[in-house]
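Morning. Coffee machine broken again, so started the prediction first thing and wrote up yesterday's gels while waiting. Chain of 205 residues, entered below exactly as on the submission form.
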Amino acid sequence: MSIIGECFVAFLFGSIVGLLVQRSRFCNTAALRDAMLFKTYRNTKALLIAMMILTIGFTGFISIGEGKSMRFDVGFNQIIGLFIFGIGMVLAGACTVSTWVKAGEGNFGAVWALLFTFIGMFLFSLVWSFMYWPPAPSAMTGEFNLETLQLGYANAETLQENTGIPAIFFGLLQFFVLFAIYKAILRKENKQHNDQEINQQNTPA
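Came back before lunch.
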């Protein structure tokens, strides 16, 4: 496919996803926040379904040699970064995806959140370039390095190369784990619904 074709497909796919996110009000933050604080699972179920579809599709392409996965080291620095990012999502009241949608709808708070996201990424790039923190040249080589708390590459493509097992196998394992969580949520919702019906029947008219 030519560059123009790839750009057109990316634009078309992004437009469809953007429309779906805007109409469904989907948000990664809400998927976790609502489940933990309000015991509602609408966004949580949507997130799990999306992850199941992406897992099978992504690992399937890798298995037939068509996947172009990004390789990056996983280590303690990712854990710290994800924790800080999670705090930022909670303070902003939305994930990056829904922040883009809210900004497009004219939400001024979301525009500020995006602005400081860009500023933070720019400042991080300066720290990475000039200070090399964490020590990238010596530690982030794709190999396990306990001294620098780096786990190396950790994705389905790497597992396929190291074990000879097709990536789709690992994708299916993750799929069934996600599906089990999804079924557990459905059982919990059914139990909540049944309890509400029983309470309504026992409530005096």
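The chain is about 75% helix and 5% strand. Going to sketch it on the whiteboard this afternoon.
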